[in-house]
Amino acid sequence: MNIEYPExxxxxxxxxxxxxxxxxxxxxxxxxxxxxxxxxxxxxxNFVVSIPPEMNKGHFCKFEDxxxxxxxxxxxxNYTKIFEGDILRDRNGNIGQVWYNPSAxxxxxxxxxxxxxxxxxxxxxxxxxxxxxxxELLEV
Length: 140
Hints:
Blueprint: E1 8-12, E2 17-25, E3 30-34, E4 43-44, E5 47-48, E6 59-62, E7 66-75, E8 81-83, E9 86-89, E10 95-101, E11 106-111, E12 116-117, E13 126-130
Antiparallel strand pairs: 1-2, 1-7, 2-3, 3-6, 4-5, 7-8, 9-10, 9-13, 10-11, 11-12
């Protein structure tokens, strides 16, 4: 059985870059961000199980200086991991942003056309950007 651990990336609001999250520290109120590297890392609980070589290039950011985005556990048609904040295009050309709905306890894709795309068919969708670097993709 292949277990996937919670994984996060973060938008560094000051540097305006998407970063891999190395360590989340609730005691210190922030995260160690690893450059703009999106290499595979296993995170178990709040701590990294295996630290990638890029760790020495990382920097610590307070939670208020970043936006954390969780890997939703699904991949697109190119086998790329889908995170909160990603912008997807489905097989019909509809475009939407991945959101987490805390009251429903699930992720969904809200389309710029005003409809909800079916996240269960993510293997037929393609990531075309993210809300921080490509917000114009959501403009109608």
